[in-house]
Specification:
- The complex is a heterodimer of chains A (114) and B (111).
- Chain A is mostly beta strands.
- Chain A is built from no helices and eleven strands.
- In chain A, a hairpin with a 2-residue loop joins strand 5 (42-50) and strand 6.
- Chain A starts with a strand and ends with a strand.
- The model of chain A has no long low-confidence stretch (mean pLDDT 93).
- Chain B has 111 residues and is mainly β.
- Chain B is 0% helix and 52% strand.
- The termini of chain B are far apart.
- The chains are: A mainly beta (114), B mainly beta (111).
- Chains A and B meet through strand 4, strand 5 and strand 10 of A and strand 5, strand 9 and strand 10 of B.
Chain lengths: 114, 111
Amino acid sequence: KAGVTQTPRYLIKTRGQQVTLSCSPISGHRSVSWYQQTPGQGLQFLFEYFSETQRNKGNFPGRFSGRQFSNSRSEMNVSTLELGDSALYLCASSTTRGGIGEQYFGPGTRLTVT
Amino acid sequence: TQLLEQSPQFLSIQEGENLTVYCNSSSVFSSLQWYRQEPGEGPVLLVTVVTGGEVKKLKRLTFQFGDARKDSSLHITAAQPGDTGLYLCAGITGTASKLTFGTGTRLQVTL
């Protein structure tokens, strides 16, 4: 069974630009969550999608948005990039919507904003 | 805001030593998970503890959930170099679908 895949793995952008990251969950998983990981703030929840609907959202500005497609693949978008957006962005998929179901994480997309 | 503080932040030990990592919060969690993350990879779930006072063992790893469900510990017996990584606890509240991650403990085990 293929794991969670994220593309691209590495990305370098300039301040003010926008970026789109992609996540393909494990086949059959309908829930996709996104997290931001930085050395200073650790792992922080961005949002969760289940059946194409955003079910939960973390404390991030509106520049961070996402969506989920009918095949459960998800994208997140960050507009007007800031230096502080440099981070490892992780997505995780699971069979259940939240709760204590096991979340499977992808390897992440490392975004560097210069 | 729910915070999960882990201690210690860094731990460097030799193979064969024992260690304990702590995860503390002022908030109550319905369940708590422990993950290990290696460089270049996403976190991998090690265990989920649900009941206050619960103890789970996974080979050389022992996990405990505090009676009040506010804290947890991870004990590793006879650490091996393969245990090296970033250990993260994560709390779940009720039916919320988001994980609140701890600050992390970076463990290095040398020969």
